[in-house]
Amino acid sequence: LNTVYYVTDDPQKIPFESLPSEFVIKSTHGSGQTIIVDDKEQEDFEMIRSQCSDWLKTEFGHETREYWYSNIEPRIIIERKIRGTKQEIPLDYKFFVFHGNAEYIQVNIGRFSDLTERFYDKNWNVMEFTNAYEKGPEIEKPDQLEEMISIAEKLGEDFDFVRVDLYQTEEGIIFGELT
Length: 179
Hints:
By secondary structure, the protein is of the alpha+beta class. It has helices spanning 45-57, 60-64, 145-156; strands at 4-8, 23-27, 34-37, 76-79, 92-98, 101-109, 116-121, 126-127, 161-169, 172-178.
């Protein structure tokens, strides 16, 4: 699991002074609401608090038609910024697990810039379909693919279907979320 520094429903209480120099701020009840802080000394904390307040007032499940977000209590979560093994922002590996079997792996590339996706089967054969974004470049098979598949299948064994998001980082595999 990634290190969580702080969770709140009141952005005015975010203790910026006690946070490390770099971190990531997200909403718990939506998809894509992220602020990456590379150097807190360069940040406008009031602007961040304002953005977080806006997130807390927004019904993301209704706006995006992803109803499951409506069942999550709105919170702001502040986590350790993680790094990929070959790039600054780690690739986002999304395992599509059916009855405990990982069948497909979606790799999101360029999460905070020009987002693309590429699908693979569990043997790292390229799939020619896409889901929501433009098809991205083919990438090398991750060093820890077998371990990531094992983790995804273990986490997904009690579900008919679940998507398990993982990151391969310099520190090892880090869990993202279950969807």
